[in-house]
Amino acid sequence: MCYVTAVRMNVFVFLLLIVKILCVTGKYNWDYKGYKVYNVDLKTEGQEKQFHLLKSDAVDYWRKPSVKHGVVGQAMVPPSHEEWFEDQLELLGVEKDIAIEDVYDYLEEKDSNVVRIARNDADGGASDDIGPEDEDIEGSGEQDIGSEENGSEDDDDESVDDFDFMDYYRYDKILAHLYRLQESYTNSTTSLEVIEFGRTEENRPLVYLKLTNMNNQTDIQKPVIVVEAGIIPREWITIPASLYVVKKVLNETTFLDDFEWVIIPVLNPDGYEYTHTNLRFWTKSRSTNSNLGFICPGVNINRNFDIDWLNFDSSSSACSHLFAGVSPFSEIESQLVRSIIEEFGSRLRMYISLQNTGGFISYPWHYERAASGMFRQHLLLGRDMVAAMDEDYSLDISAEASGDRVSGTSTDYARNATVLYTFNVDVVPRGTDAVLVPKEEIVDIAEDVWRAVSVAANGVL
Question: pTM of the entire structure?
Answer without folding.
Answer: 0.87
